[in-house]
Structures are given as C-alpha cells and as structure tokens.
Automatic annotation (TrEMBL):
NCBIfam families: gal_kin
Native organism: Amphiprion percula (Orange clownfish)
Identification of the protein by name: Galactokinase 1
Family affiliation: Belongs to the GHMP kinase family. GalK subfamily.
SUPFAM superfamilies referenced in this protein's UniProt entry, alphabetically: GHMP Kinase, C-terminal domain, Ribosomal protein S5 domain 2-like
Source domain of life: Eukaryota
The UniProt record lists the keyword Transferase: yes
Length: 398
C-alpha cells in the first residue's frame, strides 16, 4: 500500500499542539501552508534557463504562529529529521543589518525569507513549523518551507501580493542563507502550482486529470543535501560550457553547437552540457506528449532522462537506479526516473491506475531499500487562496 501522510488539517493540529506546549498561551492567530513538488521531467535544467515540468504535491509545510511585541523571534520545527536544536531564538535587527546564517541549518531558510521579505521591517513573532514533505527527498522541502514562511509573514505584514516576486524572494533566500544556487522552479511551483496540473511555466498549467493515470513517488530514504559541493559544481560546469559555446545559457545551445566545440572542453564538462541540452529537448517533447495523452511516449522520455542523469550528469545512486529498474518491469508502467537534485531522494513513476498495487508490490520485493511510496495526483488539497488555512472555532478550542 501507498504510504499515508498527514493532511493540512492534521499538520495544523500538530503544529498548534506544539505551540501550546511551548508557549502556553492562546492559540496561534495565523496558519498557512505551501506544497512541495515533484518534477516529472526536466532535471537540472532550471538553473540553465531550460524547461521543466513540475507539479505541486499534497505533501505540504504548515506554519502557525502569532505576532508579538518587540523584535524577538522564536521558531520551532516539529520535523523529527531536522537538525538540532529544533528551536531558535533571535532578535530582528533594527539598524538594517542582515540576519546571519548559522546552525541549525533549517533555520537559515527562515532567516533568509525574513531577510528578503518584500515589506520590511518585520516585527517579532512566535511560530511552529510542521511538514509532510520528506526532508532531503528531492520533493522541495526547502522551497515549501520558504514559501510557507513567506506566506506567514504576509499575514503579519502584507506585501503587494505579487506572486512571481514572492517566488523570486524565496529563491534568493535559499541562495544567500542556505548556500544553494538553486533555480526558480521549486519556488514557482510552490507559489503558483495548481491542483491536478503540471506547470510548464508560471502561466501554462497542463492538466493531469485523466482518471486512468497515476503518478507514484518512491522515496529511497537516502538523504541528500544540496548545500554540499556537488550541486554547485554541476552548476559551475554548465556555466563554463555555456561560456565556451558563447551562449548566455545552455538553453540557447544545440547539440550541433556542443559537438563543434567538443575539443575545447574537457569530457566532464561536455557530458554535463550534453545532458542539459538533451534534457531541455526531452522536456519539450514530453510536454507535448502529455497534452496529447501519449503516455507511452512520455514514459520513454522519462527513462531516457534517468539514464542521462545517471550516466552524463552523474547525480543518481544505486538505490535510485534499483527503484527505476524495478518499476519499469511492471506491465502498466509507462516510465520512471529519479527526480530532484539527486544523490538520493525519490523516483517518480507514471503508470496506469490498474497497475498501482502490482507496481508497489514489485518495487517493495525487488529493492533492498527501506522505502516510502506516495500517490502524487491525489485530489487532497487546493493550493490557491494564498495558501492560507483558516483556523475554525472548534480547532481554536483544542
């Protein structure tokens, strides 16, 4: 069976209970949430200005809290996988000086969002975080946290409400305070994602409402951390390749350009660039296939994407390769691939609805990894209305 996860309402209850235990006062006045995401295809292309095809998930991050007098901030996380301590206390500077990143690492995302909030200055508050997005699983737990926290600040002190600028501010927060030079995809889909749709760009949702179609996410539970050197190294290699090709980004390059310049770059740089250029084209083809309902074609492109990420970009691992190999052997599975930054995390599998149970069983029997499996296209939660969750009177009395 697929792994169960807490709904938005259940996460709010969890966060509110921790809030009451720690602060022992009236219930928090604000509750907001933002979804994680899964990328169906188009991996390591966003920071190369290339195309992606992500969709928002029913796995979300919730933030509850209340404003306080003064400049003191207290934030707690209920996430058991978060690094210690799970409580941070700090004061907001009144002289315009920046908030410095430090430990624990999860708090750097919070500090970064405060630093880049578009309606400063922010006053003091108390807040609790709860999430169903697995940390380090390649499902954008960081972007989900950033967007949820930005939405929380919007309830305390509203900005102009511009959604694109909100996503950019959250991306900048990850750059400056988490040290991850990520693209904009994760933040965009967490802000702008629409239930039951993939998102080609900020303005073009692609429906995924076919009842015969299921998207499974399999978490290898191999943790990754994009704050390490490998992610930055891949981005630097792509920028070097674009420079050699005389392009602003690899989105503007073709395989003909790359082959003509092959003797001017080392083999590793060539392989990184080849993945990106071909992956951008695969994503264009996959988007058109999805619009036509050509799921076999889409699945074939997913497998090609995984092979490229494994062999050319070198961001897969044994556990992810095993999960993909097991999934694609099942009748009714269209395709499977690793998703997210890599070095662990999750796979995403596209399959026919009748094959769900057989696919889950086959993956569980034929892999050596302790896994969790989620159904991604579940009509469980709406992502609009500024991601604000209204606390009912009944909940407020708990």
């Amino acid at each position: 069976m697929a792994t169960s996860y807490q709904s938005v309402s259940e996460l709010v209850v969890t966060a509110r209970q921790l809030y009451g235990q720690v602060f022992g006062e009236e219930a928090p006045r604000v509750a907001v949430y933002a979804p994680g995401r899964v990328n169906l295809i188009g991996e390591h292309t966003d920071y190369n200005q290339g195309f992606v095809l992500p969709m928002a998930l029913p796995l979300v991050t919730v933030v509850v809290g209340s404003p306080t007098a003064g400049q003191d901030v207290t934030v707690l996380t209920a996430a058991e996988d978060a690094d210690e301590p799970r409580r941070v206390d700090f004061s907001l500077p009144t002289d315009g000086s920046p908030l410095s990143p430090g430990l624990p690492s999860w708090a750097n995302y919070v500090k970064g969002v405060i630093q880049h909030y578009r309606a400063p200055p922010v006053s003091g508050f108390r807040a609790v975080i709860a999430s169903s997005v697995p940390l380090g699983g390649g499902l954008s737990s960081s972007a989900s946290l950033e967007v949820a926290f930005y939405t929380f600040l919007q309830q305390l002190k509203p900005d102009d409400g511009d959604m694109v600028s909100k996503a950019v501010a959250c991306q900048t927060a990850e750059h400056t305070h988490a040290g991850v030079p990520c693209g904009i995809m994760d933040q965009f889909v967490s802000v702008l994602g629409k239930e039951g749709h993939a998102l080609v760009d900020q303005a073009t949702p692609v429906p995924l409402a076919d009842p015969r179609l299921v998207i499974l996410i399999t978490n290898s539970n191999v943790k990754h951390s994009l704050t390490g050197s490998e992610y930055s190294t891949r981005r630097r290699q792509c920028e070097e390749a674009a420079s050699i090709l005389g392009k602003d980004s690899l989105r503007d390059a073709t395989m003909k350009d790359l082959e003509e310049a092959r003797n001017r770059m080392d083999d590793v740089t060539y392989r990184r660039a080849r993945h990106v250029i071909e992956e951008i084209q695969r994503t264009v083809q996959a988007t058109e296939a999805l619009k036509r309902g050509a799921y076999k074609e889409f699945g074939k492109l997913m497998v090609e994407s995984h092979n490229s990420l494994r062999d050319l970009y070198e961001v897969s691992c044994r556990e992810l390769d095993e999960l993909v190999a097991a999934a694609i052997k099942v009748d009714g599975v269209f395709g499977s691939r690793m998703t997210g930054g890599g070095f662990g995390g999750c796979t995403v599998t596209l399959l026919q609805a009748h094959a769900i149970d057989m696919t889950i069983l086959h993956i569980q029997v034929n892999t050596q990894t302790h896994i969790h499996i989620y159904m991604a296209n579940v009509p469980n939660v709406s992502y609009q209305d500024y991601h604000q969750y209204t606390i009912s009177r009944k909940e407020a009395g708990r």
